[in-house]
Amino acid sequence: MDETFAAEFKAVWDATNLYLLVEVQDDTLKNDNQPSGFAQDQNDFIDIYLDTDGDGQGGRAMLPGRNLAFQNGYAWDLAVSVEGWTSGIYEPGEEGPIRIAEASEFTVLADPGQRRVTLRIPKSILGDDPENWQYAEVVLSQEGFPSGGVMRVRDVLPVAEQWRIGGAEPGATNATRVLDLVWVEAGEQEGWLSDFMPSTSPQTALTAEDFAAIPMIEVELP
Q1: pTM for the full model?
Q2: Which residue ranges in the chain fall short of pLDDT 50?
Q3: Which of 2, 30, 124, 129 is deepest in the core (most CB within 10 A)?
Q4: Tens of pLDDT along 40-72?
């Protein structure tokens, strides 16, 4: 997976809303008939993970099917997942992620000309202290007919095929399905995304310890 999809991530806010701004470098966005404005032929989508308290408690593994986790000391309290058709906001639960907001409860603005997605989310959903939060933004590929338990993420194989990502170790069930991660230092994310011990365990048996792991970032104050 040597392509770069994610270019920049920013978080800004006012008294009422948190605005998450994502710039991309491919054709994820164009004028299309999907509700979010994402390009149907690309089928990319975006996850943003938020640590709102910094206590290291919460979800270590990302949403199901991402096959990516957070390094020790990092954990997500909220996850915003946005794609062409099905979006939502989640919090971690003992039996899996719990959807706490539907797509209709926040706004997705796609600007193909600027290759930017802006999410406007009420603080009433997320909380009131975003300047002290940590964030992680990743880009994935959406699958309309996904394998079981992967939440609409496209499968990854050793060699790319139509509707399948390439780059996995042969036989590995825990290869990351994340295409790119926004990070300040160029090149570091590639190492993190590929740093895992291949497993052949069923997808439903995999845990955070089976996945590659990444840190989170803080945002500059507006």
Answers
A1: 0.89
A2: 1-4, 31, 39-42, 222
A3: 30
A4: 444 678 999 999 999 999 999 999 999 999 999
CATH architecture of 6-215: Sandwich (2.60)
Q: Which tokens go with 49? A: 């993970």
Residue ranges per structural domain of the chain: 6-215
How far from the centroid of its chain's Cα atoms is residue 118's Cα?
A: 15
